[in-house]
């Protein structure tokens, strides 16, 4: 709320107090000593407020900005003024109640005065100090704006009426003009009898005003002469004071007499007594006459903001809070319901929202610790009022009328309907109460609860009034509901959350504190499984709110439905101040929630250090140093090492910090780990030296060797460098003395075989020049590996003393389909019939793999024997691997001298053709040779017998043609 809003709020409140003063002057036969002077002092304070409000409005209109220090001081003074006015209002309510109770009230008043000091004197002292605090600011604004400091017309009827009555009283007592605001002047008291009171024209005027309707509905505006009614869609309900003290007492008693006739009489008075009539006594006194101009600015007062600051004074240690809402809402509230009936006034001071039990919105969130206050709400002790009659008042029309009155904030009508017996819950359960809450109408909330509205009723929407008050940010309404027993932890109907959870979600710390004071559960769990403490932390609510939750019993170790603790949420939110607060409230830094607190803390070094200092055990987080290394957080690594963490501890049983620093090229962390005892020979997914080779971190090899790394344990680092084509590493390792013939323990590969396999001629030459053995076996013999790579074989063959010693190498070259390798091997003296494993000949393998080009080369250039068996006879292999009627290889073999009648392992070409049942192939063979029908298979059956059992007449014809 802005400074201007506070000023306007105090001004509206002053108008309400003016009306109460008028009512008291009209009903009291013997006002307390000094009451007239108190009224004058009160008006002086109000005039200062008018001048300041006009000045602030002008600054706002012209977009001028006052110094922040000046605005802060003014805001403090306005709050002090509001507090004083609230105490004055309560004092007036008490005096009015004494007057309405007749003789009993007078006895109570006298008894009170015997044991208590003078309330009027105390109030005058407080108002005098407040006036002095505001006077400099008012003078400065008046000097800059002139005399145009009139109050807003919408709230001025109380001021004008009070000013007019006080002026007439002063004239009647021959009071010198211009001294109404003097604090030191002596004023006479009301000591005349009732008869004299009635004979005095001024007193008669006051008595006449007691019958006027001083409440000013929003449908009226004030002119210079009287009050005129604006056009409106509905007729306003005009309220009036009851005629005299006896009528008040009669209404406040146990409702003797006919309630309906009383209501009719009240309505008749409202229709007869209009505001225009009520203002007729003020004719001849224009509105500005009621606000005499401030005295001229003294010459020694400079236009400096510092002159506006004075000592603040408040008559109460607890700040008071008036009705919340916009200025227009406040004006409507004052106009429609400032002067309540006797039974309403009887309890208004007891349940004034936000002013009792030390719970005030204005002083909840100031600097300093918030004390833990637990208030046990006892609805049974709260004020209740029974309606005069309940017959025939629960009709839909009456219920709708109550709802309309609440919506219009017509408090007089709300009170009258409730007093006639209309149920306070409205047409739907608690609809009236929720509507009053939605409109921030504290007076309607009070009245509805006074007449029995259920503060916990969820209604047809499932929304409790307290939940609605929290959602609307209505502090005063929430206070009243809690006093009447509203449950801050209830979850009802379709609304998924409780009021206290809603206050956290909507970031309303004052309401959260209020709910906690009235029994809110600081460990409440929301529907999504989060506790309100965790929600407050992750939603970045203020540390003070979190401290309040902890002070009110929130479990600092309480987990949500997913196992997360508040400390875990605070760390992930990077809120070190909350982490400290949680630790101070007993949070366990070693409690997994869902994992150990050090894991998320490594991302926030300051929090990590705090946890380590407060007892977090790094031994319960094996691998924490590796994680810090992997996120490149040298601060966290340093803190952990200083705390005694093991630099060789593996994360997930695999990853070491040293290898991670090499992998991520973190030079500073690498050297930090080595200097703190990291083992250069401890394997991670691979050894540190191997990691340097695979990730091209050659700069770390020498520091590792200096720290004790063993390049030959395990063997294979040179082969790894070749595999990753790291030429610089190969050269460095060879220079460092690594044996180029070392074999990898698992695969047996050597650097030479890997270079051949990778077809890397440069590394092959480098290794051969560095002493690599071309005859040394790796995963296989180098020459056998090289047949798949003709270029590598060409480089390697001159280094091989006897290529023929490697049996089957020719057949392997055929399998690799490398014709160039076959040519080089033949040129090196390897036999064309060199069988692999003593079985597989190059020719039969070429036929099997359908390498036609190699078949032609082996028969024509290599001199391969077409009748030399390998897996089988070449012609048999050709028949078995034939695709369709592709007879190219078969014809080539027959042309090069293959014998179809030669039997090998019980088969020849004729028998194979008969088994295949292909007469076309059989005829192809028969046309090119003479068939031996007496040749036998492994079972002794001749070709003729086989043809007789399997063949057809066509087969016999083919065979007979040949024979």
TrEMBL record:
First and last residue of the signal peptide: none
Give the matching Pfam families. Ank_2
- Report biased composition (Low complexity) as residue ranges: 182-193
Which of UniProt's keywords are assigned here? ANK repeat, Repeat
Q: Which PROSITE patterns match?
A: ANK_REP_REGION, ANK_REPEAT
Protein name, as recorded: Ankyrin
InterPro entries under this entry?
A: Ankyrin_rpt (IPR002110), Ankyrin_rpt-contain_sf (IPR036770), Multifunctional_ANK_Repeat (IPR051165)
Chain intervals for the UniProt region annotation (Disordered): 173-197, 226-297, 346-365
Each ANK repeat occupies one of these ranges, namely: 461-493, 528-561, 562-594, 747-779
**Superkingdom assignment:** Eukaryota
Q: Which residues form a coiled coil?
A: none
* UniProt KW Ion transport keyword: no
